[in-house]
Structure formats: structure tokens, C-alpha cells
Design goal:
The protein has about 170 residues and is an alpha+beta fold. The protein is about 35% helix and about 20% strand. It is built from six helices and seven strands. The protein has helices spanning about 10-20, 35-45, 85-90, 95-100, 120-130, 145-155, and strands at about 1-5, 55-60, 65-75, 105-110, 135-140, 160, 165. The strands form two sheets. Strands 1-2-3-4-5 form a five-stranded mixed sheet. The protein has a two-stranded antiparallel ribbon with strand order 6-7. The N and C termini lie far apart (about 30 Å). The model is unreliable at about 165-173 (pLDDT under 50).
């Protein structure tokens, strides 16, 4: 595992290519690979400057990226774009502030097809969350990505609005 902060930009092209491979395969096959690669590369340029940004890459023996995980510290005020507003509505602002603000937000986790089934995703997630402030980390994922959901359900507990931890991501959103 190789750890990065803003220096992730030194391998931005290679990371964008790995990202495009992962996130244009099923269930994301409707995405254009070149557009996905370019959009991620552009987003990475700004994400790398977020407070608390960090990344972990798993490299092959040839030095190629087999998998990656990125994240940053969730800041106040809590975002309202994308699915963040739904999180606040489900958990309530006080619980969001208590549980998510100041925690590590896992933004991306991807493993190339040839490296799947090896435990690499779990190792990447563990390596990145091992750097989390006070051991607190969280993530959102697309509810149509069945393999991804199964991985997280097996790996992580899910917080219900009541505050109980459960193993059913559909309970959250």
C-alpha cells in the first residue's frame, strides 16, 4: 500500500485510468470511459486540496494501480448537494454533526477487475480508515451497485436514524 495526500496528483493520470476502468464496468457500463476518466481527473485536482485529503493505492509488482481508496475530512457545514441532503433528512442535523462532521468521508474505493476477489478492497478500506480522525469514517454508495452493496454490508455496519447499527444499507437511505 502506498499512502498519498496532495502528492496524489503526481500519479493523477494513472489513477484516472484505473478509476475509468472500474467505474465504466457493470453496473456503470452506461458511462463513457473517456468522459469518466476526464471528469475524475478534473475532480481529483480539486479534491486533493480538500482539508484532510488522503489516498491509498495498491500497486502491482509492475507498479501499476490495482486498487485505490480516497477520502477527506467532512467539514461543517455539512454539504447539501448530491445525496448529502437525504442523509441529513434521515439522521437529523444533530446526528450528522455528532457522527459525520470531523470524520473521514470515504469518497472512492475501487479495485480493478483482475484484482477482485483477493481481499484487496477490504485491505484498501482498512488502510484508509486506519488514518481516520478518532477512528471515525463513513461513506455513501449507489444503491444500484449490488456487488458494492454486498461488500459494504459484509464489511461495515450501517447506522439507522435511531442510532442503532444494522447490516442493511437500504435502511439508511
Amino acid at each position: 500500500m502506498r499512502y498519498f495526500d496532495r502528492d496524489i496528483l503526481t500519479v493523477a493520470d494513472e489513477l484516472a485510468e484505473a478509476y475509468a476502468e472500474v467505474f465504466t464496468a457493470p453496473p456503470w457500463e452506461h458511462r463513457d470511459r473517456e468522459e469518466t476518466r476526464a471528469a475524475f481527473g478534473k475532480r481529483l485536482e480539486s479534491d486533493a486540496h480538500r482539508p484532510g485529503f488522503r489516498a491509498v493505492l495498491a500497486l502491482s509488482e509492475r507498479g501499476e494501480i490495482d486498487g485505490f481508496a480516497t477520502g477527506w475530512t467532512t467539514l461543517a457545514p455539512f454539504r447539501t448537494d448530491r445525496a448529502y441532503g437525504r442523509v441529513t433528512r434521515r439522521l437529523g442535523a444533530a446526528r450528522v454533526d455528532e457522527l459525520l462532521v470531523g470524520a473521514l468521508e470515504i469518497d472512492e474505493l475501487g479495485v480493478r477487475g483482475h484484482a477482485r476477489g483477493t481481499g484487496l478492497g477490504r485491505r484498501l478500506l482498512s488502510a484508509l480508515t486506519g488514518t481516520a480522525p478518532e477512528g471515525r469514517a463513513w461513506l455513501l454508495t449507489w444503491d444500484q451497485a449490488a456487488d458494492t452493496l454486498a461488500f459494504y454490508l459484509w464489511s461495515w455496519p450501517v447506522l439507522r436514524p435511531s442510532g442503532r447499527m444494522v447490516k442493511a444499507i437500504s435502511e439508511l437511505l
